[in-house]
């Protein structure tokens, strides 16, 4: 039996433990309230805190990546690599790679890539040796001696010798061959001195002769057995030409059944035997197009690496920052040739008035590309150029005085008349956006002094017919001048004769003073003496106003990306763009400095 004292002790212990449990529960409730329920309301703040830290971490990682890439770019450079297919688009068609027949833009381009000449132009547009390591002229000024570089071979491995050079020029001189360059080589004797030496003996001194030696050399061992009259149609010209240039023939493919959609793909491979080093490109492809619009579409699709000779680039492609544009001046001039045998233009006062009434700066501003103004038959910087002997400046008042003096009276309608006839001229030019723009400017400017100008834009065949027949009053046309001041072909009276072989005197200009100066200038080898001899020609030209000089034409070359080692400098002909083609590269890689 449990006594009373024990019961009381148990009761006290129970009550003490009960109070302890109540205290623990109270503490637990207080802890839950303080550490859990009270902090439930702060979850939003905690979430924002966590998100902020996460964003900060992401930002730091992003900045690290950007900085790493930036530093990578700083310590790395883009390096061009050999290889790749270079596809160049040209408007026209391929017909003949043989350099003694190639005249079109396409044919000249293919020929320049496959063949090499005695002389060439470097990346500063200076005449330098190519196959020839030296070219000298004797004291008489009539005998030129070319010494060839040794070790040059044809693309079939055969050696190129003086025998090939003599064969080339003697073939060109053969009338049965019918080369377009035939007339320029008449009377010149070409002889082999030894296997590396050739002489050219001229009938008369011709200071500009060295510039005629840039044409491609032909392989005698392949062509010697072909009849001269059959050479133009030889398979050599179109299937497997063998040259000594940077690229060798591979093949040609034609696609399209209709003329309007037909394209040609001329494929050339780098020549391992090229004496200036094997080209860096893996393949050079020339693609021809009948129409510039079709070529532009092909370029947009990325089917072309570059386009040559584009007239103008559409605005949508101008905005493409990945496109590289090269506006290259040509050593030539666009002129408005005034037909001196036209009844109206036979009067020097009328010709002088037309020159004075033209505003060249306004015409240049209308063009779609920056251009260089021309003021004389010589380009600025050319040997003999004289800033004091240039064409008349823009002066409308002077133009009106000249027309008044010539008896052309201005009527109430602003148009001049004489003997009941209006002062109306016919201008012929090529059917081309650029020429049309210039013709419209001349039409507007000459109308201000009372002259009506009718403009006819013709295709190439129609324009050549007009030139041959001299059916125009004014001819808006571009001519090639080159680096030498010998402009005999364009201004000497003999070149206006209907029996002249080329008849490039488009103005039918005739002046005894100009003739004598042109003859004297081309027969002097001393530069200072040549310049002095040409001065009377420039003064006569300025006074007689046989033409209106406007500007240097350009050659627009467009590529999708940078073409490494492509030099943007003045060209004498479009095919001279290939001066350093063996160094061109389009592939790239990043390398650490």
Structural write-up:
The protein is an alpha+beta fold and 593 residues long. It folds into 4 domains: 56 residues; 157 residues, 3-Layer(aba) Sandwich (D-Maltodextrin-Binding Protein, domain 2), CATH 3.40.190.10; 121 residues, Alpha-Beta Complex (Dipeptide-binding Protein, domain 1); 221 residues, Dipeptide-binding Protein, Domain 3 (Dipeptide-binding Protein, domain 3, Roll). Helices cover 32% and strands 21% of the residues. The chain contains 15 helices and 23 strands. A 7-stranded mixed β-sheet has the order 9-10-11-2-12-22-13. A 5-stranded mixed β-sheet has the order 19-18-20-14-21. A 4-stranded antiparallel β-sheet has the order 5-6-8-7, with helices on one face. The mean pLDDT is 90.
Looking at this protein, list some descriptive labels.
five-stranded mixed β-sheet, 15 helices, 593 residues, Dipeptide-binding Protein, domain 1, D-Maltodextrin-Binding Protein, domain 2, seven-stranded mixed β-sheet, extended, alpha+beta, 4 domains, 32% helix
């Amino acid at each position: 039996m449990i006594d009373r004292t024990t019961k009381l002790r148990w009761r006290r212990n129970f009550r003490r433990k009960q109070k302890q449990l109540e205290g623990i529960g109270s503490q637990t409730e207080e802890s839950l309230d303080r550490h859990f329920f009270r902090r439930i309301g702060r979850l939003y703040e905690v979430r924002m805190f966590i998100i902020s830290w996460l964003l900060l971490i992401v930002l730091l990682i992003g900045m690290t990546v950007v900085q790493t890439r930036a530093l990578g770019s700083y310590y790395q450079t883009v390096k061009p690599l050999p290889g790749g297919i270079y596809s160049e688009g040209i408007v026209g068609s391929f017909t003949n790679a043989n350099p003694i027949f190639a005249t079109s833009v396409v044919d000249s381009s293919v020929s320049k890539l496959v063949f090499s000449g005695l002389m060439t132009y470097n990346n500063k547009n200076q005449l330098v040796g190519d196959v020839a390591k030296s070219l000298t002229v004797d004291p008489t000024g009539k005998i030129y001696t070319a010494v060839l570089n040794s070790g040059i071979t044809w693309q079939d491995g055969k050696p190129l010798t003086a025998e090939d050079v003599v064969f080339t020029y003697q073939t060109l001189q053969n009338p049965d061959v019918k080369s377009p360059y035939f007339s320029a080589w008449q009377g010149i004797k070409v002889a082999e001195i030894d296997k590396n030496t050739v002489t050219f003996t001229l009938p008369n001194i011709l200071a500009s002769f060295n510039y005629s030696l840039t044409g491609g050399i032909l392989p005698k061992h392949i062509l010697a057995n072909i009849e001269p009259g059959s050479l133009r149609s030889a398979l050599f010209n179109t299937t497997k030409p063998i040259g000594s240039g940077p690229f060798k023939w591979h093949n040609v493919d034609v696609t399209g059944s209709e003329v309007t959609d037909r394209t040609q793909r001329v494929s050339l491979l780098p020549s391992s035997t090229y004496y200036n080093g094997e080209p860096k490109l893996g393949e050079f492809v020339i693609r021809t197009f009948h129409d510039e619009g079709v070529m532009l579409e092909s370029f947009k699709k990325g089917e072309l690496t570059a386009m040559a000779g584009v007239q103008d680039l559409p605005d949508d492609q101008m905005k493409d920052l990945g496109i590289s544009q090269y506006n290259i001046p040509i050593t030539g001039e666009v002129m408005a040739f005034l037909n001196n045998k036209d009844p109206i233009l036979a009067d020097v006062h009328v010709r002088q008035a037309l020159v004075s009434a033209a505003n060249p700066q306004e015409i240049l501003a209308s063009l779609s590309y920056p251009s260089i103004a021309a003021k004389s038959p010589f380009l600025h910087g050319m040997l003999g150029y004289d800033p004091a002997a240039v064409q008349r400046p823009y002066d409308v008042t002077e133009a009106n005085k000249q027309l008044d003096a010539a008896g052309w009276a201005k009527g109430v309608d602003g148009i001049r008349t004489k003997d009941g006839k209006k002062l109306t001229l016919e201008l012929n030019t090529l059917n081309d956006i650029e020429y049309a723009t210039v013709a419209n400017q001349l039409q507007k400017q000459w109308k201000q002094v009372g002259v009506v100008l009718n403009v006819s834009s013709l295709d190439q065949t129609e324009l050549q017919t007009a030139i041959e027949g001299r059916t125009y009053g004014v001819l808006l046309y571009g001519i090639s001048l080159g680096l030498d001041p010998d402009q005999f072909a364009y201004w000497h009276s003999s070149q206006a004769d209907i029996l002249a072989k080329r008849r490039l005197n488009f103005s039918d200009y005739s002046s005894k003073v100009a003739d004598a100066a042109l003859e004297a200038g081309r027969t002097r080898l001393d530069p200072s003496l040549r310049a002095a001899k040409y001065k009377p020609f420039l003064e006569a030209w300025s006074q007689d106003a046989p033409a209106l000089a406007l500007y240097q034409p350009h050659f627009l070359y467009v590529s999708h990306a940078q073409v490494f080692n492509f030099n943007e400098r003045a060209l004498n002909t479009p095919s001279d763009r290939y001066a350093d083609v063996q160094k061109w590269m389009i592939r790239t890689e990043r390398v650490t400095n």
